[in-house]
Amino acid sequence: MSVVGAEYRPPWTALHVIGIGGASGSGKTTVAQKLIKTLNVPWVVILSLDSFYKPLTKEESARAFKNEYDFDDPSALDWDLLFECLSALKQGKKVEIPQYSFALHNRLPTKTTIYACNIIILEGIFTLHDPRILSLLDMKIFVDTPSDICLARRLNRDILHRGRDLRGVLTQYNRYVKRSYDDCVRPTMKNADIVVPRSDSHVALDMITQHIRQALAERSRKHLEALRALQSSPTSSADELGGLRNIICLPQTPQLHAMQTIIRDANTSRDDFQFYLERLAVLLIERAMVELPHEQITIETPTGKSCTGMALSASEVVGVSIVRAGETLEVGLRRVIPDVSLGKILIQSESMTGEPKLHYSKIPPLSPTGHVFLLDAQIATGAAALMAIRVLLDHGVPEENVVFIAYLAAPSGLQAIARVYPKVRVVVSVIDEGLMHPTAFIVPGFGNIGDRYFGC
């Protein structure tokens, strides 16, 4: 039986990138903020082109403090770095964005991390200038505002927010900014899909918003279709899946079966449910530890005799819980590895469509040879599991270093994981019959594990 060969692409690999160009002070940031407010979708990031100014040499920095350095020329920007960052974001990767200080006229040592966005809004005077950047933009907007309004806004911004003085701002404007707009910025208007007259054009903003919503809806439709294709018509029974090398089901001993029976029973008290679920968690974690690399060592026993034994050789192990039911496994993990570092991933499904959406991720720092125990209470359709594994891979965790741990699973969810991530090992206590339609609850199942464990 072969279940390998499928591909899963999370929605952030179809990132929608909007570019907004226009004169300095034209209202590009205002347009971006109005779009965010109108769209009302999570994980929209405004990326300023200002972040990509090149680091200055000592001589250039001295000129900048005298208002004699031309920041309004395309050559002042690090286009290679911007292209690299945007390309990586379009591929769904985590990216570190530089921070630029206009007060210091240089890059800061700190960076901003961007990952798994729905929309990136790139705004700056030269956003529509470079052909490589244009090729990455899904929508190109130019904000066309009268020059007197632009100057007034620039004076207000540079004096109040960038620590500049009036004379310096006017000197730079007359020497560099106006010439740059005429020669370099205004010609990029021809590259725009939409020209917004001033930043308060409601008609233009409504048209842009409608277009973006349609694009996001189409992306969600394709994502759901891909998930259904991975989950549909499982060709593997529980016994066949249990026989796969990377799907590990605990031996169904009478003791284990008795624990599962207590956990399944709707009449089990919350205290007993917690107690036996935590016992089961320890068994699962101990079995997962077998999947980690070990090495042979020699020790001396209290009797003074040498003894050959084994020791964990993995450089480090961290746990990452899928909030919130996955957190029920943390007690068992800490009993086995008391000082383990823990991360969190929050994935919730849309109430109307059932599409899983990533809302939060915090992954502990991990060496390239480190291993991750990914914790969730159950694997039903496999949608959340696929997304969570992809988050780990995007953070540099090798696929073969991920061990997914769950109390129980349905065949369709396990098959989806095995198809897409054949090197990920999955440890469960039992593989149940399947899913109840249309709710997608596992049957016979353990019920809502999070509600039963936490009491709400």
Q: What does this molecule look like?
A:
The protein is built from 14 helices and 19 strands. The strands form 5 sheets. Strands 8, 11, 12, 13, 14, 15, 16 and 17 form an 8-stranded mixed beta sheet that branches. Strands 2-5-1-6-7 form a 5-stranded parallel beta sheet, with helices on one face. The longest helix is centred in the middle third of the chain and has 30 residues, at 202-231. It is of the alpha/beta class.
Detail the topology: elements first, then pairings.
Blueprint (H helix, E strand, L loop, with lengths): L15 E7 L5 H12 L4 E5 L9 H8 L13 H12 L4 E7 L4 E9 L4 E5 L7 H4 L4 E6 L2 H15 L4 H20 L8 E4 L4 H30 L6 H5 L4 E3 L4 H11 L5 H20 L4 E7 L5 E7 L4 E7 L6 H7 L4 E9 L6 E7 L8 E5 L2 E2 L3 H12 L7 E8 L1 H10 L4 E7 L2 E3 L4 E3 L5 H6 L2
Parallel strand pairs: 1-5, 1-6, 2-5, 6-7, 8-17, 11-12, 11-14, 14-16, 15-16, 16-17
Antiparallel strand pairs: 3-4, 9-10, 12-13, 18-19
Helix pairs in contact: 1-7, 5-6, 9-10, 10-11
Task: Give a quick rundown of the structure.
The chain is an alpha/beta fold and 456 residues long. It has helices at residues 28-39, 58-65, 79-90, 131-134, 147-161, 166-185, 202-231, 238-242, 254-264, 270-289, 330-336, 383-394, 411-420, 449-454; strands at 16-22, 44-48, 95-101, 106-114, 119-123, 139-144, 194-197, 247-249, 294-300, 306-312, 317-323, 341-349, 356-362, 371-375, 378-379, 402-409, 425-431, 434-436, 441-443. A hairpin with a 6-residue loop joins strand 12 and strand 13 (356-362).
